[in-house]
Amino acid sequence: MSKKICILIFTMSLIMITMLGTAFAGETTPKQALGKLLFFDTNLSTPNGMSCSSCHDPSVAFTDPDSNLPVSQGVVPRLFGNRNSPSAAYAAFSPTFQLTANGYVGGQFWDGRAANLVEQAKGPFLNPLEMHNPNKQAVISAVFNSNYASLFTDVYGDNAFDNVEIAYNDVADAIAAYENTDELNKFTSKYDYYLKGETTLTEQEKLGLELFNDPNKGNCTACHSSQIGPYNADHPLFTDYSYDNLGVPKNWDSPYLYLPRAFNPEGKNYVDLGLGGVLNDPNEYGKFKVPSLRNVSITYPYMHNGYFKTLREVVNFYNTRDIDNWPAPEVPENVNKQEVGNLGLTSDEVDAIVAFLNTLTDGYQP
Fold first, then answer.
1. Beta carbons of 333 and 285 less than 8 angstroms apart
2. Bridge-partner residues for 302, per DSSP?
3. Is beta strand 243-244 parallel, antiparallel or unpaired with respect to 288-289?
């Protein structure tokens, strides 16, 4: 056998090994594959044109790609939701909504109104300000007429389309299965490689991490733990899944405030009560779910109402809310005054925390 042929065979073997490794690394179940098709299907809105991925785009860590708007736009022109779309990445790790000894934790959406991912996936299809379908039947009919309908019956049975309620739940179940895959939960940030000893942090990033963890300085870890916690599987997710009122001002730039009364009956007087509005509990007014900080550098604008456009603005707000001339909180009750508001950070220290937060973006190459 010639040397060239030996080299060719060796090279082809390496290629096959690489391909097989990639295939096994990205292997999905039929349900997860179905969920991905549903997640990206723009025919599941009325009119056609919007999918789950329209507000949860992979290119920006599964958040809204239109960073120029503080809240997300629906499929119907000039209609907008009342909140900034949270990232779907790592959402699968949030525990089921529950009341613990330390307060409410978990669930989905900013206000926890969906107990889990399956319940969350059911919401946008029927929201008139999002995918605008008139009923569940419209969604199921679109799936029935899709080019992946046979996969749906493969996963859920030959009679999967016979009962609309069951089929609608199955649609949400499949989407939740996709959201549990590595495509949304990558753990490939610089910080992940740093924890594995495969890269180092810069001096500024190290300082940022120290300030982030220091209870007498940034104290960010009080809600955004950099350690593995009870709900964080094998990786830190930088959230304790609790609910907090940070005193975020009302965002007068939100187009939701100026919608017709049919969609926003309170008009400019609208106040987002968050968890307290869902529970009808004044003790929870203004509280929103603590998000994961993974990919936070690319998921702007920030907060439930998109008030802040840059990450530095957010850190500076945490640092100076109670000592600088910030606008009043949208909901003045229950504001967290114990952990944020007057951190005493210097400008350089704020920059260092931002530098550390930039290490949490997936896709880092050591």
1. yes
2. 308
3. antiparallel
- Give the list of residues 6+ apart from residue 14 with CB closer than 8 angstroms, or none: none
- Percent of the chain's residues with pLDDT above 70: 93
Q: How confident is the model at residue 22 (pLDDT cuts 50, 70, 90)?
A: very low
Q: Would you state the structure tokens that stand for residue 333, as one six-digit string?
A: 């009750």
Confidence of residue 17 (pLDDT cuts 50, 70, 90): very low
Residues of each annotated binding site: 52, 55-56, 220, 223-224
Kindly state the average pLDDT of the residues 70-95: 97
Please tell me the predicted confidence (pLDDT) of residue 232.
63
Could you list the residues known to form a binding site for heme c, using ranges.
52, 55-56, 220, 223-224
Give pLDDT, residue 3: 35
Q: What are the tokens at 173? A: 């179940």
For residue 84, give the DSSP letter.
P
Cβ–Cβ < 8 Å for 126, 135: yes
350's enclosing H/E stretch is helix 347-357
The structural domains of the chain, with segments of one domain joined by +, span: 30-93+120-179, 190-360
Q: Are 75 and 51 in contact (CB under 8 A)?
A: no
d(CA 365, CA 110): 32
Cα three-residue angle 12-17-23, rounded to 5 degrees = 125
Q: Do domains 30-93+120-179 and 190-360 have the same CATH topology?
A: yes
**pLDDT tens-place string over residues 227-254:** 887 776 789 999 999 999 999 999 999 9
Residue with tokens 């007087």: 269
CATH superfamily of 190-360: Cytochrome c-like domain (1.10.760.10)
CATH assignment of 30-93+120-179? Answer: 1.10.760.10
The answer to whether 71 and 263 have CB atoms below 8 angstroms apart is no
Q: What pLDDT was estimated at residue 18?
A: 34
Specify which residues 103 forms β-bridges with: 100
- Under 8 Å between Cβ of 285 and 245: yes
Q: Would you say 314 and 293 are in contact if contact means Cβ atoms under 8 Å apart?
A: no
Q: Long-range contacts of range 48-57, CB-CB < 8 Å, 24 or more positions apart?
A: 49/75, 50/74, 50/75, 50/130, 50/131, 50/132, 52/88, 52/121, 52/124, 52/175, 55/85, 55/124, 55/130, 56/85, 56/87, 56/88
Residue 317's nearest CA partner among 351, 340, 295 is 340
